[in-house]
Amino acid sequence: MIEIVMKGILPYIAKRTSGKSFKSHKYCLDDVKMPGVVYDDRQDLTLKKYGETEKIKQTKPLLKKSQQVQKFSKPLFKYFLDGSRRTYKVDDIAYDKRVYPVIAGQIGVGCCERLEDRCLNKKSFKHDLVLALPGCADKDGNKKELFFNKLVNDLNEQDFIKSKNIKFHKVLSYEDREMQVEEKYENLGIAKIHDEMIECEKKTAAQLTHDNLLNENAYLLKDGSLEYQKMKTGDLKDLSVIKSNYKCVVGVSKSFNPEKCRDKNGLTNATKIAELSLFSRTPAYMYESSRTAGKEGIVKFAIWYLRLRDARYTASPYEGIVKIEKILVSEAEQNNGLDSEEIDLISANLINERNPVCYGSDTRWANHLYPVYLTETYIKSKYLDSRYFINLF
Length: 393
What we know:
By secondary structure, this protein is an alpha+beta fold. Helices cover 27% and strands 28% of the residues.
């Protein structure tokens, strides 16, 4: 191992990678407020084909169904999955006459299980500390993975790391290409950390499937979209290959862009979604995702919208509405759509998951499903304090 006497994470990295540290101002990137709304989904949805077996043309009320489920059945959802990450700019470092940001991150991915007494308990949890550097920090040439793996292993062996009782999971590399107008290296680093979080979410779903814990009576509810874009690296990089892991998984997005949802004529469905009556759902439509296309082709989804809260008590017509996704796994589902009875059962159970709510604790209260909110709260409670984390550097 190279002998380096400089103490501290950033001096160590600069020395090991032959870079020049500028000792720049450190801050949490998530605290930098960006204009506009950040949506959970990224889809441009042109809905040309039904995504369910029953070809309904109007919205469908489900209050009675939800009451029957609550009275006569156990909850469909037993597991609740959420992923979160916090990112920080901790320095600027120069390589080859160009200055790049050093991005640090905390990644948290947790899964909670509903027990027989309906209490929630931790099923799994992972909290990783990561760093993101430009690819040109690799001084061994075209061996990036080996170089950065060795870098993080050597970093973790330093006394100044051991004395803090911390350990970095990975050093990730982002593209060092020349930026176009309005592009930022910071965003490339954040994207790498976000991809690492997504990979951890996929591993959690895969483990539940491998352990035979997911079945028709025990579904996994995942916070956010299931449309995982194909990645260049990772054991589970291709959703088209691993879609069988999602047979009993439902994704629910709290915030979505209604203007992105269009009918077969290309006209927006925003008004129809906004006018959804309480405890009613839209028809389910089939969405073919080119973003997830991989070795096994395009991944197909059934997508529909459900109103959980009365619009009279929310701040906008879209508050209280969630977007629901389920991957179409079998050949029959991909040809004919998801069974409408399953869609109704999923929707009825989601209606029953809405209470109690987190009034005042979260501005997104109207779109929260309470077990997901508890899972998210648990994950965030395990983060290192941002001021403490930044001062590690």
